[in-house]
């Protein structure tokens, strides 16, 4: 073969390699849709209790700081975790987070705006602060001090579990136990997360450890640090409820029913979030904050909790019945309806604000059997066939 023929062959081979690579990844690396941004942020200090809408919020190794940081458990030997699923009136327990200033004045943390130094802290729990709980019918509010305000009281360690996964917390004392027991009508206690004990995420739903500042983990959330939903997905559901709800009193829902942490808007289609693997939250050009990178772990399968009437604290039949008609979309959990996606952040320090832009870096395939398995975004499962072959090899 002369030099010209060899050069032509190598050129042809290079073009074929590039074309093959482009075809293989064109479905997963796409141009980001324009104008997607963050429209709302919520935290839920006590698992299964009412949330707090905030304008911006710090991130730590567990997700949003103090999100699901406290949990109500039964006052029994196994300290079973307690949720709205069995006790829908828990949604009426309303938390308020306060920072106590040098003069003793309490500042509501959730009301603070951009530029206030409080929200640049990434250790709110060790500050001079407190959580205040109020609930209907209770003669007084319950005050639970942050660690920085409790006078160094040594708390009893409590071992519980969340969906079969062990968690370790600290008992918040007899006064808190008496208050929550009176409200719920059975013996219960309140615990806070022991931050020295890592609660790892499910390995099959997590990218490579090398992509994270710290070990991927969460506090007392069901399984993941963040839940992301879009306004367009809620609008699609509400349009179906308006025309065919099986409950006459449920014709539309608020996003609160789905307990998201992050709500985005201006996505191209309803449930577009189902297709995202990797995204960045981009602060305004005038901000010095770094962008935050999130990975979408899996779709979120829904139990009956969205059926809770958040104003009355009672269980209904919708929206789950309607969701079951059109949102059983994940072959890895084909008997469950999905709404929203579970996420994890690469950083363990920073904060997110309403109005931050969203850049979608990579889209692709999701399946509750797992698409990540500790891999990089470019190495995730690309199809049901690829996943089944991977699982078969893993089993063998």
Your description of this structure?
- By secondary structure, the chain is α+β, with helices and mostly antiparallel strands.
- 17% of the residues lie in helices and 28% in strands.
- The chain contains five helices and 21 strands.
- It has helices at residues 3-25, 174-184, 231-244, 320-326, 384-395; strands at residues 37-43, 52-54, 56-60, 63-64, 70-74, 94-100, 106-108, 129-134, 142-145, 157-162, 165-171, 188-193, 226-230, 262-265, 276-282, 292-301, 308-309, 314-315, 338-345, 350-353, 357-363.
- The strands form five sheets. The protein has an eight-stranded mixed sheet with strand order 2-1-14-13-19-16-15-21. Strands 5-12-11-10 form a four-stranded antiparallel sheet. Strands 7-6-8-9 form a four-stranded antiparallel sheet.
- β10 and β11 (165-171) form a beta hairpin.
- The protein is globular, with a radius of gyration of 23 Å.
- Residues 12-28 and 113-120 have low confidence and may be disordered.
Helices and strands in order, then pairings?
Elements: H1 3-25, E1 37-43, E2 52-54, E3 56-60, E4 63-64, E5 70-74, E6 94-100, E7 106-108, E8 129-134, E9 142-145, E10 157-162, E11 165-171, H2 174-184, E12 188-193, E13 226-230, H3 231-244, E14 262-265, E15 276-282, E16 292-301, E17 308-309, E18 314-315, H4 320-326, E19 338-345, E20 350-353, E21 357-363, H5 384-395
Parallel strand pairs: 13-14
Antiparallel strand pairs: 1-2, 1-14, 3-4, 3-20, 5-12, 6-7, 6-8, 8-9, 10-11, 11-12, 13-19, 15-16, 15-21, 16-19, 17-18
């Amino acid at each position: 073969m002369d030099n010209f023929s060899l050069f032509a062959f190598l050129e042809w081979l290079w073009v074929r390699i590039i074309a093959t690579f482009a075809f293989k990844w064109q479905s997963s690396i796409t141009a980001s849709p324009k104008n997607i941004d963050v429209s709302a942020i919520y935290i839920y200090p006590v698992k299964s209790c009412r949330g707090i809408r905030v304008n911006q919020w710090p991130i730590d190794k567990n997700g949003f700081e103090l999100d699901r940081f406290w949990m109500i458990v039964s006052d029994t030997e196994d300290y079973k975790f307690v949720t709205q699923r069995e006790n829908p009136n828990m949604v009426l327990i309303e938390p308020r987070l306060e920072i106590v200033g040098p003069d003793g004045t309490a500042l509501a943390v959730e009301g603070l705006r951009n530029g206030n130094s409080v929200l640049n802290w990434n250790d709110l729990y060790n500050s001079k602060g407190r959580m205040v709980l109020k609930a209907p019918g209770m003669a007084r509010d319950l005050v639970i001090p942050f660690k920085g305000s409790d006078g160094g009281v040594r708390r009893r360690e409590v071992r519980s579990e969340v969906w079969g996964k062990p968690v370790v917390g600290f008992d918040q004392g007899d006064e808190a136990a008496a208050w929550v027991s009176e409200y719920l009508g059975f013996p219960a206690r309140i615990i806070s997360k022991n931050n020295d004990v890592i609660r790892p995420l499910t390995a099959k739903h997590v990218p490579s450890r090398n992509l994270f500042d710290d070990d991927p983990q969460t506090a007392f959330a069901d399984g993941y640090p963040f839940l992301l939903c879009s306004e367009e997905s809620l609008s699609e559901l509400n349009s179906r409820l308006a025309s065919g709800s099986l409950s006459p009193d449920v014709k539309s829902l608020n996003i609160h029913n789905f307990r998201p942490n992050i709500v985005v808007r201006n996505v191209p289609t309803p449930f577009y979030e189902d297709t995202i693997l990797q995204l960045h939250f981009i602060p305004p050009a005038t901000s010095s904050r770094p962008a935050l990178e999130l990975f979408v772990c899996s779709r979120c399968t829904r139990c009956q909790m969205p059926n809770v009437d958040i104003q009355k604290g009672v269980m209904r039949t919708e929206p789950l019945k309607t969701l079951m008609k059109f949102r059983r979309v994940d072959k890895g959990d084909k008997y469950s309806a999905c709404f929203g996606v579970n996420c994890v952040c690469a950083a363990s320090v920073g904060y997110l604000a309403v109005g931050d832009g969203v850049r979608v870096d990579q889209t692709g395939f999701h399946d509750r059997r797992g698409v990540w398995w500790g891999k990089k975004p470019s190495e995730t499962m690309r199809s049901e066939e690829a996943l089944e072959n991977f699982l078969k090899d893993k089993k063998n």
